[in-house]
What does this fold into?
Amino acid sequence: MKARILGTGSYLPERCLTNDDLAQWLDTSDAWIRERTGIGRRYVSEAGTAEMAVRAAKAALENGGISAEEVDLILVGTMTPDYFCPSVSCQVQCALGADRAACLDISAACSGFLFALSTAQAYISSGMAETVLVIGAETMSRVVDWEDRGTCVLFGDGAGAAALQAGETGILAVDMGCRGSKGMALSCPAVPLQNPTERARYEENSFIRMDGQEIFKFAVRTVPDTVRRVLQAAGIPAEEISHFVFHQANRRILLSVAKNLGIPMEKVPMNIERTGNMSAASVPVLLDELNRKGELVRGEKLVLSGFGAGLSWGSLVLEW
It folds into this structure.
């Protein structure tokens, strides 16, 4: 059996920050940000990761005609949980009343939703689960330095979800990987080591630190490779793919990837101008937008691909 997406959902916070808003306290401008990233605005949460995840999950279940009681497994891709414990997935289970579901958070940053979808496929194909709720949710606004124009202009908050069930068609092939040797190119410190025998010296903040050039080079080289591998594994030529739903990291990255793969930009949907980089939430939010607009047709083939901190990547081919 394969994992088939039956419904999607998403949630974006009400509060929006435009580039002009950021320019009120940063040495930047709308033109400077747009030229380098393609971003015009982003949303910032007033609630947190779990609440956004719950809202997206409810929308996905409703869209797929699935009840919370049917869910066997809840997977949440996030690097910005509200608590170390309980997990976001356990908070979602409680809010939904999905009492029979096992719960698991997956920390793979911008690849988190793809890693979670791959996990759902493994559970469903093995017979360990029949119905899986997969969520990507991030409150990136809590981990960026709002005085650092190199990072805070990039990120936004949001959540997206997909409800999957076992079927004859669905996810056809998966490609995943990590390059831990380059992992510190994008990092975010955790709680400092403090115990009776050790006291590590950490910097005062726990904000994201990024080597932008290293990340750009990684993305434009790695994403075309992972897409080619997953298409080959599925036995499907790129020409048969209707939409390439990429992680919305940077418009320049997406243009470079499309050029490398030789695919027309009309097959590469973008919402980065409106949302910024939402890490694990970017792919499911964009997928839900396409679904709600009626741009996804049952039976057509899609490629989904996420990439980012770790350094990590995950791609899959699915039949909608």
